[in-house]
User: Fold these one by one.
Assistant:
Number 1:
Amino acid sequence: MADPTPEQLDLLLQLQATDSRIRKLRHQLNDLPEQQQLDAASARVTELEREHDDIRIELDRVGAQQRQLEREVSVLVERRDAERSRLYDGSVANARELKAVEAEVDTTDRRINDHEEQLLTVMEQVEALEEQAAGLDEAAEMTRDRVGELTTERDDAAKGLLVELAELDATRTRQSVQLPDELLERYEQVAARTGGAAVGQLEGNTCTACRIELSRADVGDLLAGPPLTSCPECRRLLVVPA
Ligand SMILES: [Zn+2]
């Protein structure tokens, strides 16, 4: 690759300055108290929705239990009634057999009572869970309203910063299209690696990106070398003055 022209290097440093301002602005946006409150409220909504889902799953389980018990009770009631009618319809004449049928009726009655007690417990659970679900629903609804309000507050607080950010984005586009693809690509790669500044300038004996003082020998090598190289300390791109 041919050495970049001084104009291209200038542009590269300008692009770096734009990106630094964009990064700073994004931080400011994230640090807005309104943004933090909004993030917290949004997280709370998600949490409430998850809790609500858990309750619904539990309700499905307990509801199935309730229906099962109700079915069993109705089968038992039917059986008991059939047994009981045998006591009076004259179909059983033998006294010993009558006693046996009576005992069966008693046994079935006890089972019905047991089932009904269980059913009562399960119905109380259903009621408690439904109350919880309704409470969570209400809390989520209120928090969602709050998210709406906070979004407006955040937008108001961020308005100035967002206008500035849009301007910087436009500047960035204008600057980057003027750079040769290869140079822009190198810049983007380093930026992606460092997550921050991608290019520094040799000022005296320091790189402006890492601020590490370079040895006299390094500086001598850099001054004798190409106008764009890598900082021997931080490996970022380094613009060396002519
Ligand atoms: Zn450096």
Note: The first helix runs from residue 6 to 31.
Number 2:
Amino acid sequence: MKKGSIVELELSGLAAEGKAFGKLEGKVVFVPFGHPGDVVKVRLLKVKSAYCEGSITEWVQRSADRVDPPCAHFGHCGGCKWQHVSYERQADAKHRQVIDQLERIGGFEIPEPRPILAAASPWAYRNKLDFSFSTGRWLTAEQIQSGVEFPKEGACGFHVPGRFDKVLEIEECHLMNAEVNRIRNLIKTKARDRGWSFYHPYNHVGHLRNLVFRSNRKGEFLIWVIVGPDAQATLGDFLSSISEEISEEHRIVYSINPKKNDALHDLVVEPYRGEPFITETLGKVSYRISPQSFFQTNPDQAERMYQTVLELANLSGEERVYDLYCGTGSIALFLAGKAKFVLGIEYVQEAVNDAFQNAQLNGIEHVHFLAGDMKNLLNENTISEYGMPDVVVVDPPRAGMHEDVVQRLLTMKAKTLIYVSCNPATQARDLALLTPIYHLDVVQPIDMFPHTHHVENIVRLTLRP
Ligand SMILES: C[S@@+](CC[C@H](N)C(=O)[O-])C[C@H]1O[C@@H](n2cnc3c(N)ncnc32)[C@H](O)[C@@H]1O
């Protein structure tokens, strides 16, 4: 088994990073786009003492359980890498991944995990998509071999993983309401008709740079058109021509990006048609979503996640709650109706501003938010000012919690600790550190991102007697 050699093996399972695996000479071999039951030829790209990684060069036999990917861009686009796996099997693999990591990394025994909360609609579940325009069109091997000439202006779609300068043209994406495809393709056609160019990633010239869609469950869109300075003179005409063909309930905003990078968070957003935000309601709480604000991208599953946190918090109305890593305060506001007081802490000042604004929008006064690094802000002063919490909810980024934060939680001894995580491996590591005083009580995996390998997990810890 040498790097570069081709081996044949039968795949037997799905692994944590979304790859399939099989065993050869006692070693696990991981490959993308495989399915349990496939017999494949694999070129070995990495050969380590404990495992190998490779890519499939040929299918000797395809598993009868594979499903046909509905998307024409499957295999080329960086998203939705599990379309060839049935949704039931995806959900099952995610469930097993959570339990496996809690057992292997955390050293827990999980006798009765709750069944995973799988998505009721595994397609068109997203409320946000970002498209890029680039002169650097990525051509697939089949497109190159076809000999077809592709439009010279470049591509509008998603960046190819690891390539800031190459964009895969997207005709149809199934992750959001189909109207997104019509509007995106309309904007491309209008640009072509007017001789507008796509952004050149090296020369930094061009009219169209990015296009961001946000939507709510009422079917309203916020369409954000980002252009380069070259577009300034004719932007009004361009926006007018597209707005004529977009339903009036949808709002349009724009930004001119003079920078050499594509970061969007620091751009000035100008309204073109309607208010420069949309509103989403989860449970009884309304959240204002501006072009740059963070909001969970699967609203149906976010609502189920927040409902689960509320159920597990078991509030009577008398409790003081801390929502740590609170983002725009979504969980804090969702719990506020059943709590005496909620304090949210979050690193990003803009998110905290949104949290205050959302509190005001809902007339919720018994919440407060602080901006800063958790390991510095979660200290004795904060606790003495806002009171010792009865319930703590943490929802940290993928890296999990800083050890100082875990230590602080150990001294705070809140009765109930709810840990929401998008990375069960770091969650298991942090939970293991909390076991001296906490008992792992409930494990509730939830699938926020069908067709990807990502899985979210909610755990309740209760203080040991
Ligand atoms: C997974 S998100 C939480 C999302 C939020 N609970 C929601 O449902 O909308 C994690 C949040 O932690 C914040 N964060 C990351 N590192 C932090 C730190 N060191 N201190 C405080 N907040 C941090 C991020 O800015 C982000 O908003």
Note: The radius of gyration is 24 Å.
